[in-house]
Design brief:
The chain has helices spanning 14-21, 79-94, 100-116, 120-134, 153-163, 181-186, 210-217, 219-223, 234-238, and strands at residues 2-6, 25-28, 61-62, 75-76, 140-143, 168-171, 190-194, 231-233. It is of the alpha/beta class. The strands form two sheets. A six-stranded mixed sheet has the order 5-2-1-6-7-8, sandwiched between helices. It has a two-stranded antiparallel sheet with strand order 3-4. Helix 6 (181-186) links the parallel strand 6 and strand 7. It starts with a strand and ends with a helix. It comes from Kitasatospora saccharophila. InterPro entries: WbqC.
Length: 239
């Protein structure tokens, strides 16, 4: 069983979504510190035909405990206005896409949720599941706050993998810079690195929301991606 662990992101980047979809189980890391001006509560959208203005639909968020606020405790500010703004930006960017009508229909429950709750993490998780389901990708999703795990960056990941019964951890390029691989070896866990191509459907996949790829190329083209072909043995890449 392969496990991916990631902080909840709003309308996540295509590379992030592909990593999540490549795992048998995804742990939503919601009990770590919230980070301002990251992808946790905003998304970057390109334009349909290149050029133009990059837009950043966001979830204005209040941190009850300031910088010490955990992701699960962050609260949305002005849900009604946020709902209108998110819908408006998405429509302005992609309404001429042939894939917009289907996406707009799928978007309605997420917009309703934005207007119904002030829990930012709940909204961001729902946005990820919306995109995953649109592509027909599946996999179990659990929250780290419901699982036992110790402190320390790497040890927490090891403990979460154990808690869900995983045998392998799927690591993105960001995590590879700080992962202590020996801890996984000591725990009897495999370690794989996940990367995506940088051309075609995947151009901009590491910085642009998956919504962009879906609106430019369509769900069918994106869903053809062979997720597991991008796995590399950790030891092989580190040599």
């Amino acid at each position: 069983m392969v496990c991916a662990i990631h902080q909840p992101n709003f309308l996540p980047r295509l590379a992030t979504l592909a990593k999540i979809a490549s795992a048998d189980v995804c742990v939503v890391l919601d009990d770590v510190q919230h980070t301002r001006r990251d992808y946790q509560d905003r998304a970057r959208l390109g334009t349909l035909h290149g050029g133009g203005t990059t837009r950043w639909p966001s979830l204005p968020t209040r941190l009850p405990h300031d910088r010490a606020t955990l992701i699960r405790d962050a609260r949305l500010v002005d849900p009604a206005r946020t709902r209108r703004r998110v819908e408006g930006i998405l429509r302005e960017q992609y309404r001429t896409s042939p894939f917009w009508p289907e996406f707009a229909d799928r978007l309605c429950p997420l917009l309703d949720l934005i207007g119904a709750t002030d829990r930012t993490a709940e909204i961001t998780q729902a946005s990820t599941l919306l995109l995953r389901d649109l592509l027909g990708w599946r996999g179990r999703v659990v929250r780290s706050s419901d699982l036992p795990a110790g402190a320390g960056r790497t040890q927490r990941l090891v403990d979460l993998c154990r808690a869900v019964g995983a045998s392998t951890y799927l690591c993105g390029t960001g995590g590879s810079r700080y992962i202590e691989s020996e801890r996984f070896v000591d725990a009897g866990l495999g370690l794989r690195q996940f990367v995506v191509p940088e051309d075609g459907v995947w151009a901009g996949a590491r910085v642009l929301s998956a919504v962009h790829g879906l609106m430019v190329h369509g769900p069918r083209a994106v869903a053809k991606f062979d997720n597991r072909s991008t796995w590399d043995n950790w030891d092989k890449r580190s040599k």
